[in-house]
């Protein structure tokens, strides 16, 4: 069976490749390869696509996407910013399809408000492969299932259970090829996933890889959708995680690895502690990054030391806010004292001022600007770098239910347009961004 996997473009006001790879799609590709399928990948967000002129990356493998300005959707025309398509040119995507002859096409989806890129890819694919089944999955398909079913024009499969996805793939392909469906239990797929690697060999060039050491999250933060995407929390065997990292570093000459876990430090002594010990013992020489944020309460002296020795670069801690009441209401993930202790332990382990980061959120429901400013000062006064992030309302979360958000179009989930605030507030948000830059610069001097 020939399977074509497509990671669509981003349509947005801003986008940057911060260790962004379609990890779920790549794990599915790895599973399909082990099951004997011929798998091809077209990643529209591949900055190293051979058809593009070279786009420089920073020393950690990140960088800007190729982009083209496009017309704004009608509901966004009042936004005074340019709307762009990020990723390879459409003509390059169409040209690449000329060499494909798939039995089945899988299209992934990222942020809910990126669905215009998903629809554009599907439109082109349906014209080119009239009779080939197309299956849509991913974050948008899971969180906005009814919208996807109504407007995408293809079969939608929500959820993040890879075993069920593989079963669905073989069921759809079986109908097309007049073959019997796939028996999940007989294939023993559950054991297969314990040693499953994302299929990064499908890329012609890589500046980094992203991996997961776990699925799901034990926390249920009010603003986060992880519990909706995966309702269980499972951690991989630490030795197998080290095997995976070693494989990519040696076989693909990778120097940068990003962890996509939502709870990387949970059960720290028995999980990340063992992983880091294995990395150090085997002398794996690469750099590690944590774009999803780390739980500060688990960073004791030993874990901090292991992180520094294993080359964790600018560990990013999840703080969001210093408002004690809001911390409790949103999930009780961290306290200010736990955050201070974590930063102190990281400094004692060898990190310097500006080499530890923290996420601070702005635009949360009921949050005033002074709360954000106070949180920025708190982080900055500890010598840590502030990463200011905009709140985004996500369907199905506790916040979504409590505040009765009812945006009919997922485009309004976009954190760049601040749907909770009037346009005149944007200037205040810009002042917060400028204030963050000033504080970070002063810590770097």
Q: TL;DR?
A:
This protein is 38% helix and 14% strand. The chain has 445 residues and is α/β, with parallel strands linked by helices. α10 crosses α11, α12 crosses α14 and α15 packs parallel to α17.
- Rg to the nearest angstrom? 22 Å
CATH architecture of the largest domain: Alpha-Beta Barrel
Low-confidence stretches: 184-190
CATH class of the largest domain: Alpha Beta
Instruction: Give me the CATH superfamily of the largest domain.
Output: Aldolase class I
How are strands sequenced across the largest beta sheet?
3-1-6-7-8
Query: What does the largest sheet look like?
Result: 5 strands, parallel
What is the typical, i.e. mean, pLDDT?
92
The termini sit apart by 58 Å
Count of separate structural domains = 2
**Helices and strands: which structural class?**
alpha/beta
Total beta strands:
16
Helix content: 25-40%
Proportion of residues in extended strands: 5-15%
Count of alpha/pi helices: 17
What is the name of the CATH topology of the largest domain? TIM Barrel
Shape: globular
List keywords for this structure.
445 residues; 5-stranded parallel sheet; alpha/beta; 17 helices; Rossmann fold; TIM Barrel; 3-stranded antiparallel sheet
């Amino acid at each position: 069976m020939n399977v074509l996997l497509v990671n669509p473009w981003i349509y947005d006001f801003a986008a940057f490749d911060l260790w962004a790879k379609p990890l779920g799609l790549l794990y599915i590709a790895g599973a399909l390869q082990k099951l004997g399928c011929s798998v091809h990948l077209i990643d529209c967000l591949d900055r190293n696509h051979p058809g593009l002129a070279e786009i420089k990356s920073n020393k950690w493998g990140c960088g800007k996407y190729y982009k083209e300005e496009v017309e704004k959707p009608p509901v966004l025309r009042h936004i005074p910013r340019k709307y762009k398509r990020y990723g390879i040119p459409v003509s390059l995507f169409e040209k690449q399809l000329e060499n494909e002859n798939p039995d089945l096409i899988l299209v992934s989806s990222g942020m809910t408000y990126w669905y215009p890129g998903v629809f554009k890819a599907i439109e082109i694919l349906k014209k080119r492969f009239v009779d080939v089944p197309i299956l849509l999955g991913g974050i948008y398909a899971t969180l906005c299932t009814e919208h996807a079913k109504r407007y995408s024009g293809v079969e939608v499969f929500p959820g993040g259970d890879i075993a069920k996805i593989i079963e669905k793939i073989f069921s759809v392909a079986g109908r097309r090829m007049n073959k019997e469906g796939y028996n999940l239990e007989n294939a023993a797929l559950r054991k297969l996933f314990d040693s499953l690697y994302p299929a990064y060999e499908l890329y012609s060039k890589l500046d980094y890889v992203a991996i997961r050491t776990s699925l799901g999250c034990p926390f249920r933060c009010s603003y986060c959708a992880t519990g909706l995407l995966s309702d269980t929390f499972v951690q991989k065997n630490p030795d197998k995680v080290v095997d995976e990292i070693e494989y990519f570093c040696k076989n693909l000459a990778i120097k940068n690895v990003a962890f996509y876990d939502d709870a990387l430090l949970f059960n720290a002594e028995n999980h990340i502690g063992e992983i880091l010990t294995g990395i150090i013992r085997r002398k794996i020489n690469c750099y590690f990054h944590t774009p999803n944020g780390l739980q500060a309460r688990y960073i004791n002296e030993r874990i901090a030391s292991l992180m520094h020795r294993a080359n964790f670069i600018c560990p990013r801690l999840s703080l969001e806010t210093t408002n004690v009441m809001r911390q409790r209401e949103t999930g009780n993930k961290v306290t200010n004292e736990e955050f201070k202790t974590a930063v102190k332990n990281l400094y004692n382990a060898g990190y310097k001022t500006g080499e530890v980061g923290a996420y601070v959120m702005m635009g949360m429901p009921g949050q005033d600007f002074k709360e954000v400013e106070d949180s920025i000062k708190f982080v900055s006064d500890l010598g840590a770098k502030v990463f200011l992030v905009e709140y985004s309302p996500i369907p199905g979360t506790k916040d979504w239910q409590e505040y009765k958000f009812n945006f009919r179009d997922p485009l309004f989930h976009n954190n760049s347009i601040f749907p909770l605030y009037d346009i005149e507030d944007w200037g205040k948000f810009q002042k917060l961004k400028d204030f963050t830059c000033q504080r970070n610069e002063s810590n770097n001097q």
